[in-house]
Amino acid sequence: IKTIGVVTSGGDAPGMNAALRAVVRACSYYKLRCKGIRLGYEGLITNNIVELGPRSVSNIINRGGTILKTARCAEFRTEEGRKKAYENIKKNEIDALIVIGGDGSFTGAHNFEKEFGIPTLGVPGTIDNDIFGTDNTIGYDTALNTVINAIDKIRDTATSHNRMFFIEVMGRDAGFIALNSGIASGAQDILIPEKKDEIEELFEAIQRGEKAGKLSNIIVVAEGEELGGVYDLAKFTKMKYPKYDIRVTVLGHIQRGGEPTCADRVLASRLGVAAVEGLMEGRSSVMAGIRSNNVVFTPFDEAIVKQNVINNELIRIADILAR
Ligand code: ATP
Protein backbone atom coordinates (compact mmCIF):
# COMPACT_ATOMS: atom_id res chain seq x y z
CA ILE A 1 0.00 0.00 0.00
CA LYS A 2 1.33 3.41 -1.00
CA THR A 3 -1.73 5.65 -0.89
CA ILE A 4 -4.70 5.54 1.48
CA GLY A 5 -7.99 7.31 0.75
CA VAL A 6 -10.13 8.51 3.64
CA VAL A 7 -13.81 9.44 3.60
CA THR A 8 -16.39 10.53 6.18
CA SER A 9 -19.83 9.17 5.28
CA GLY A 10 -23.40 9.04 6.58
CA GLY A 11 -24.43 11.21 9.54
CA ASP A 12 -21.73 13.45 10.98
CA ALA A 13 -20.51 13.02 14.54
CA PRO A 14 -18.24 15.08 16.78
CA GLY A 15 -14.77 13.53 16.69
CA MET A 16 -14.80 12.66 12.99
CA ASN A 17 -12.25 15.44 12.47
CA ALA A 18 -10.03 14.00 15.19
CA ALA A 19 -10.23 10.60 13.47
CA LEU A 20 -9.41 12.15 10.10
CA ARG A 21 -6.43 13.96 11.62
CA ALA A 22 -5.19 10.70 13.12
CA VAL A 23 -5.47 8.89 9.78
CA VAL A 24 -3.59 11.67 7.96
CA ARG A 25 -0.85 11.95 10.57
CA ALA A 26 -0.42 8.16 10.83
CA CYS A 27 -0.06 8.00 7.04
CA SER A 28 2.59 10.69 7.19
CA TYR A 29 4.38 8.86 10.02
CA TYR A 30 4.50 5.65 7.96
CA LYS A 31 5.45 7.54 4.78
CA LEU A 32 2.18 6.77 3.00
CA ARG A 33 0.30 9.27 0.87
CA CYS A 34 -3.17 10.20 2.06
CA LYS A 35 -6.04 11.49 -0.04
CA GLY A 36 -9.28 12.88 1.35
CA ILE A 37 -12.56 12.21 -0.40
CA ARG A 38 -15.01 15.06 0.04
CA LEU A 39 -18.80 14.73 0.57
CA GLY A 40 -18.86 11.04 1.43
CA TYR A 41 -19.10 8.51 -1.38
CA GLU A 42 -20.35 11.26 -3.67
CA GLY A 43 -16.79 12.61 -3.84
CA LEU A 44 -15.57 9.23 -5.07
CA ILE A 45 -18.10 9.30 -7.88
CA THR A 46 -17.47 12.93 -8.86
CA ASN A 47 -13.70 12.78 -8.27
CA ASN A 48 -13.81 15.36 -5.49
CA ILE A 49 -10.55 14.21 -3.96
CA VAL A 50 -7.74 16.21 -2.32
CA GLU A 51 -4.23 15.39 -1.17
CA LEU A 52 -3.91 15.60 2.63
CA GLY A 53 -0.58 16.33 4.29
CA PRO A 54 0.02 16.44 8.05
CA ARG A 55 -0.41 20.24 8.19
CA SER A 56 -3.72 20.13 6.34
CA VAL A 57 -5.33 18.74 9.48
CA SER A 58 -3.96 21.33 11.91
CA ASN A 59 -6.48 22.86 14.34
CA ILE A 60 -9.28 20.38 13.70
CA ILE A 61 -8.93 17.97 16.63
CA ASN A 62 -11.23 20.24 18.65
CA ARG A 63 -13.83 20.89 15.95
CA GLY A 64 -17.21 19.15 15.57
CA GLY A 65 -18.54 18.02 12.21
CA THR A 66 -16.17 16.93 9.45
CA ILE A 67 -13.99 19.20 7.31
CA LEU A 68 -14.28 16.68 4.46
CA LYS A 69 -18.06 17.09 4.70
CA THR A 70 -20.35 14.11 4.48
CA ALA A 71 -23.39 13.10 2.46
CA ARG A 72 -25.83 10.33 1.82
CA CYS A 73 -25.15 9.17 -1.72
CA ALA A 74 -27.83 7.14 -3.49
CA GLU A 75 -25.65 6.54 -6.56
CA PHE A 76 -23.09 4.56 -4.55
CA ARG A 77 -25.84 2.03 -3.85
CA THR A 78 -25.86 1.18 -7.57
CA GLU A 79 -23.28 -0.90 -9.43
CA GLU A 80 -22.76 1.86 -12.01
CA GLY A 81 -22.12 4.36 -9.22
CA ARG A 82 -19.54 2.11 -7.61
CA LYS A 83 -17.91 1.51 -10.99
CA LYS A 84 -17.41 5.26 -11.42
CA ALA A 85 -15.99 5.35 -7.90
CA TYR A 86 -13.55 2.58 -8.79
CA GLU A 87 -12.37 4.47 -11.88
CA ASN A 88 -11.61 7.53 -9.74
CA ILE A 89 -9.86 5.38 -7.14
CA LYS A 90 -7.57 4.10 -9.92
CA LYS A 91 -7.09 7.59 -11.38
CA ASN A 92 -5.98 8.83 -7.96
CA GLU A 93 -3.79 5.76 -7.35
CA ILE A 94 -5.61 5.01 -4.10
CA ASP A 95 -4.71 1.49 -2.89
CA ALA A 96 -6.99 1.22 0.16
CA LEU A 97 -9.89 3.11 1.72
CA ILE A 98 -10.68 4.13 5.30
CA VAL A 99 -14.37 4.87 5.88
CA ILE A 100 -15.36 6.89 8.93
CA GLY A 101 -19.13 6.45 9.35
CA GLY A 102 -21.95 4.16 10.41
CA ASP A 103 -23.17 0.72 9.38
CA GLY A 104 -24.68 1.96 6.12
CA SER A 105 -21.28 3.33 5.11
CA PHE A 106 -19.64 0.02 6.07
CA THR A 107 -22.17 -1.90 3.94
CA GLY A 108 -21.22 0.30 0.99
CA ALA A 109 -17.50 -0.22 1.64
CA HIS A 110 -17.97 -3.96 1.97
CA ASN A 111 -19.84 -4.21 -1.35
CA PHE A 112 -17.22 -2.04 -3.03
CA GLU A 113 -14.38 -4.24 -1.81
CA LYS A 114 -16.16 -7.43 -2.88
CA GLU A 115 -16.69 -6.04 -6.39
CA PHE A 116 -13.40 -4.29 -7.07
CA GLY A 117 -10.90 -5.74 -4.60
CA ILE A 118 -9.97 -2.40 -3.01
CA PRO A 119 -9.23 -3.07 0.67
CA THR A 120 -11.55 -1.09 2.95
CA LEU A 121 -11.45 -0.52 6.70
CA GLY A 122 -14.13 1.13 8.86
CA VAL A 123 -13.94 3.54 11.78
CA PRO A 124 -17.22 3.83 13.73
CA GLY A 125 -18.40 7.44 13.81
CA THR A 126 -21.97 8.02 15.01
CA ILE A 127 -23.49 9.54 18.12
CA ASP A 128 -25.95 6.63 18.47
CA ASN A 129 -23.44 4.03 19.75
CA ASP A 130 -25.39 1.38 17.84
CA ILE A 131 -22.46 -0.33 16.11
CA PHE A 132 -21.31 -3.77 17.15
CA GLY A 133 -17.57 -4.28 17.69
CA THR A 134 -16.68 -1.28 19.82
CA ASP A 135 -17.63 -0.26 23.35
CA ASN A 136 -18.17 3.32 22.20
CA THR A 137 -18.56 4.95 18.82
CA ILE A 138 -16.91 8.28 18.02
CA GLY A 139 -19.29 11.11 18.93
CA TYR A 140 -21.34 9.22 21.48
CA ASP A 141 -19.63 10.65 24.57
CA THR A 142 -19.87 14.19 23.22
CA ALA A 143 -23.58 13.74 22.48
CA LEU A 144 -24.15 12.41 26.01
CA ASN A 145 -22.46 15.44 27.53
CA THR A 146 -24.46 17.79 25.33
CA VAL A 147 -27.65 16.06 26.46
CA ILE A 148 -26.89 16.21 30.17
CA ASN A 149 -25.90 19.87 29.94
CA ALA A 150 -29.24 20.60 28.28
CA ILE A 151 -31.22 18.53 30.80
CA ASP A 152 -29.46 20.26 33.71
CA LYS A 153 -30.73 23.58 32.35
CA ILE A 154 -34.24 22.22 31.86
CA ARG A 155 -34.18 20.86 35.40
CA ASP A 156 -33.60 24.37 36.79
CA THR A 157 -36.79 25.64 35.22
CA ALA A 158 -38.69 22.40 35.89
CA THR A 159 -37.92 22.69 39.61
CA SER A 160 -38.78 26.37 39.79
CA HIS A 161 -42.23 25.82 38.33
CA ASN A 162 -42.99 22.26 39.53
CA ARG A 163 -43.22 21.18 35.93
CA MET A 164 -42.90 17.83 34.29
CA PHE A 165 -40.71 17.62 31.21
CA PHE A 166 -40.68 14.97 28.53
CA ILE A 167 -37.31 15.21 26.81
CA GLU A 168 -36.67 13.40 23.55
CA VAL A 169 -33.09 12.46 22.78
CA MET A 170 -31.54 10.91 19.66
CA GLY A 171 -30.30 7.36 19.20
CA ARG A 172 -32.13 6.08 16.15
CA ASP A 173 -33.50 2.63 17.11
CA ALA A 174 -31.24 2.35 20.16
CA GLY A 175 -31.59 3.63 23.71
CA PHE A 176 -27.93 4.15 24.63
CA ILE A 177 -28.07 7.95 24.70
CA ALA A 178 -31.39 7.96 26.59
CA LEU A 179 -30.38 5.41 29.21
CA ASN A 180 -26.99 6.88 30.02
CA SER A 181 -28.03 10.53 29.89
CA GLY A 182 -31.13 9.65 31.91
CA ILE A 183 -29.03 8.15 34.68
CA ALA A 184 -26.54 11.02 34.58
CA SER A 185 -29.26 13.65 34.77
CA GLY A 186 -31.34 11.93 37.45
CA ALA A 187 -34.40 11.22 35.32
CA GLN A 188 -37.59 10.00 36.98
CA ASP A 189 -38.17 7.58 34.13
CA ILE A 190 -36.31 6.58 30.96
CA LEU A 191 -38.12 5.13 27.96
CA ILE A 192 -36.05 3.18 25.46
CA PRO A 193 -36.97 0.80 22.62
CA GLU A 194 -35.04 -2.11 24.17
CA LYS A 195 -37.17 -2.09 27.34
CA LYS A 196 -40.61 -2.48 25.70
CA ASP A 197 -42.14 -0.02 28.14
CA GLU A 198 -45.82 0.06 29.03
CA ILE A 199 -47.58 3.35 29.64
CA GLU A 200 -48.68 2.03 33.06
CA GLU A 201 -45.04 1.76 34.09
CA LEU A 202 -44.54 5.41 33.22
CA PHE A 203 -47.61 6.35 35.27
CA GLU A 204 -46.32 4.29 38.19
CA ALA A 205 -42.97 6.07 38.01
CA ILE A 206 -44.75 9.42 38.04
CA GLN A 207 -46.89 8.38 41.01
CA ARG A 208 -43.84 7.18 42.90
CA GLY A 209 -42.21 10.54 42.28
CA GLU A 210 -45.24 12.35 43.64
CA LYS A 211 -45.44 10.15 46.75
CA ALA A 212 -41.74 10.70 47.38
CA GLY A 213 -42.32 14.45 47.32
CA LYS A 214 -40.47 15.22 44.10
CA LEU A 215 -40.82 18.80 42.93
CA SER A 216 -39.93 18.21 39.31
CA ASN A 217 -40.12 15.30 36.96
CA ILE A 218 -37.74 14.69 34.10
CA ILE A 219 -38.73 11.87 31.76
CA VAL A 220 -36.13 11.01 29.12
CA VAL A 221 -37.51 9.40 25.95
CA ALA A 222 -35.42 7.79 23.20
CA GLU A 223 -36.50 8.83 19.70
CA GLY A 224 -36.94 5.14 18.79
CA GLU A 225 -39.12 4.40 21.83
CA GLU A 226 -42.18 2.41 20.79
CA LEU A 227 -45.08 3.93 22.75
CA GLY A 228 -45.84 6.58 20.16
CA GLY A 229 -43.38 9.43 20.62
CA VAL A 230 -42.80 12.17 23.10
CA TYR A 231 -45.82 14.34 22.21
CA ASP A 232 -48.26 11.44 22.58
CA LEU A 233 -46.71 10.44 25.88
CA ALA A 234 -47.12 13.99 27.17
CA LYS A 235 -50.73 14.04 25.95
CA PHE A 236 -51.65 10.72 27.60
CA THR A 237 -49.99 11.77 30.82
CA LYS A 238 -51.90 15.08 30.84
CA MET A 239 -55.17 13.17 30.35
CA LYS A 240 -54.33 10.93 33.29
CA TYR A 241 -52.97 13.71 35.53
CA PRO A 242 -54.62 16.99 34.47
CA LYS A 243 -53.07 18.85 37.40
CA TYR A 244 -49.56 18.50 36.02
CA ASP A 245 -47.97 21.29 34.04
CA ILE A 246 -46.34 19.24 31.29
CA ARG A 247 -43.82 20.43 28.69
CA VAL A 248 -42.03 18.70 25.85
CA THR A 249 -38.49 19.38 24.65
CA VAL A 250 -37.02 17.68 21.60
CA LEU A 251 -33.28 18.23 21.82
CA GLY A 252 -32.73 17.47 18.13
CA HIS A 253 -29.61 18.24 16.18
CA ILE A 254 -27.74 20.12 18.90
CA GLN A 255 -26.81 16.56 19.92
CA ARG A 256 -24.82 16.11 16.73
CA GLY A 257 -22.67 19.23 17.09
CA GLY A 258 -20.10 20.84 19.31
CA GLU A 259 -16.52 20.30 20.36
CA PRO A 260 -15.71 16.63 20.90
CA THR A 261 -15.04 15.62 24.51
CA CYS A 262 -11.62 14.38 25.60
CA ALA A 263 -12.87 10.78 25.52
CA ASP A 264 -14.05 11.15 21.92
CA ARG A 265 -10.81 12.81 20.81
CA VAL A 266 -8.72 10.04 22.34
CA LEU A 267 -11.00 7.33 20.92
CA ALA A 268 -10.88 8.91 17.46
CA SER A 269 -7.10 9.30 17.64
CA ARG A 270 -6.62 5.66 18.60
CA LEU A 271 -8.99 4.36 15.94
CA GLY A 272 -7.51 6.55 13.21
CA VAL A 273 -4.03 5.20 13.85
CA ALA A 274 -5.38 1.65 14.22
CA ALA A 275 -7.10 1.95 10.83
CA VAL A 276 -3.88 2.86 9.03
CA GLU A 277 -1.89 0.19 10.87
CA GLY A 278 -4.65 -2.38 10.22
CA LEU A 279 -4.46 -1.77 6.46
CA MET A 280 -0.65 -1.96 6.59
CA GLU A 281 -0.96 -5.35 8.31
CA GLY A 282 -3.17 -6.55 5.45
CA ARG A 283 -6.54 -6.35 7.21
CA SER A 284 -9.60 -5.39 5.20
CA SER A 285 -13.40 -5.53 5.29
CA VAL A 286 -13.11 -4.99 9.02
CA MET A 287 -13.99 -2.23 11.44
CA ALA A 288 -11.53 -0.93 14.03
CA GLY A 289 -13.02 -0.63 17.50
CA ILE A 290 -12.01 -0.50 21.14
CA ARG A 291 -13.29 -3.08 23.59
CA SER A 292 -12.14 -3.22 27.21
CA ASN A 293 -9.49 -0.65 26.30
CA ASN A 294 -7.94 -2.79 23.55
CA VAL A 295 -8.04 -2.18 19.80
CA VAL A 296 -9.99 -4.95 18.07
CA PHE A 297 -10.97 -5.53 14.45
CA THR A 298 -14.45 -6.88 13.70
CA PRO A 299 -15.38 -8.19 10.23
CA PHE A 300 -17.86 -5.90 8.45
CA ASP A 301 -20.21 -8.88 8.10
CA GLU A 302 -20.44 -9.08 11.87
CA ALA A 303 -20.34 -5.34 12.64
CA ILE A 304 -23.18 -4.63 10.23
CA VAL A 305 -25.47 -7.46 11.29
CA LYS A 306 -25.04 -7.66 15.06
CA GLN A 307 -26.34 -5.13 17.55
CA ASN A 308 -24.75 -3.59 20.60
CA VAL A 309 -26.87 -4.64 23.56
CA ILE A 310 -28.12 -2.41 26.35
CA ASN A 311 -26.59 -3.18 29.73
CA ASN A 312 -29.46 -4.40 31.96
CA GLU A 313 -27.48 -3.40 35.01
CA LEU A 314 -27.92 0.24 33.94
CA ILE A 315 -31.70 -0.23 33.69
CA ARG A 316 -31.70 -1.65 37.22
CA ILE A 317 -29.62 1.22 38.58
CA ALA A 318 -31.82 3.83 36.90
CA ASP A 319 -34.84 2.29 38.62
CA ILE A 320 -33.20 2.21 42.07
CA LEU A 321 -32.06 5.81 41.85
CA ALA A 322 -35.39 7.23 40.68
CA ARG A 323 -37.15 6.20 43.90
P1 ATP B 1 -25.45 7.00 10.33
O1 ATP B 1 -25.62 5.78 11.21
O2 ATP B 1 -24.83 8.12 11.05
O3 ATP B 1 -26.66 7.39 9.55
P2 ATP B 1 -24.52 5.48 8.10
O4 ATP B 1 -23.16 5.27 7.57
O5 ATP B 1 -25.25 4.28 8.61
O6 ATP B 1 -24.36 6.59 9.21
P3 ATP B 1 -26.21 5.68 5.76
O7 ATP B 1 -26.93 6.85 5.20
O8 ATP B 1 -26.97 4.48 6.10
O9 ATP B 1 -25.41 6.25 7.01
O10 ATP B 1 -25.07 5.25 4.72
C1 ATP B 1 -24.17 6.21 4.21
C2 ATP B 1 -23.91 5.98 2.75
O11 ATP B 1 -23.36 4.67 2.55
C3 ATP B 1 -25.16 5.99 1.89
O12 ATP B 1 -25.57 7.29 1.55
C4 ATP B 1 -24.68 5.22 0.67
O13 ATP B 1 -23.92 6.04 -0.18
C5 ATP B 1 -23.77 4.18 1.29
N1 ATP B 1 -24.49 2.90 1.45
C6 ATP B 1 -25.37 2.56 2.41
N2 ATP B 1 -25.85 1.31 2.21
C7 ATP B 1 -25.29 0.88 1.07
C8 ATP B 1 -25.37 -0.33 0.31
N3 ATP B 1 -26.17 -1.34 0.68
N4 ATP B 1 -24.62 -0.44 -0.81
C9 ATP B 1 -23.82 0.57 -1.20
N5 ATP B 1 -23.70 1.72 -0.53
C10 ATP B 1 -24.41 1.88 0.57
UniProtKB/TrEMBL annotation:
ATP binds at G11, R72, C73, G102, D103, G104, S105. It catalyses: beta-D-fructose 6-phosphate + ATP = beta-D-fructose 1,6-bisphosphate + ADP + H(+). Its main location: cytoplasm. Its cofactor is Mg(2+). Residues 4-278 form the Phosphofructokinase domain. The active site is at D128. Pathway: Carbohydrate degradation; glycolysis; D-glyceraldehyde 3-phosphate and glycerone phosphate from D-glucose: step 3/4. It is an enzyme of class 2 (transferase). GO terms for biological process: canonical glycolysis; fructose 1,6-bisphosphate metabolic process; fructose 6-phosphate metabolic process. Substrate binds at T126, I127, D128, R163, M170, G171, R172, E223, R247, H253, I254, Q255, R256. Its EC number is 2.7.1.11. It holds the Pfam family PFK. One of its GO terms (cellular component) is 6-phosphofructokinase complex. It is found in: Cytoplasm. Allosterically activated by ADP and other diphosphonucleosides, and allosterically inhibited by phosphoenolpyruvate. Transmembrane segments: none annotated. GO terms for molecular function: 6-phosphofructokinase activity; AMP binding; ATP binding; fructose-6-phosphate binding; identical protein binding; metal ion binding; monosaccharide binding. ADP binds at R21, A22, V23, V24, R25, R155, K214, L215, S216. Mg(2+) binds at D103. Homotetramer. Catalyzes the phosphorylation of D-fructose 6-phosphate to fructose 1,6-bisphosphate by ATP, the first committing step of glycolysis. This is ATP-dependent 6-phosphofructokinase. It comes from Profundicola chukchiensis. The gene is pfkA.
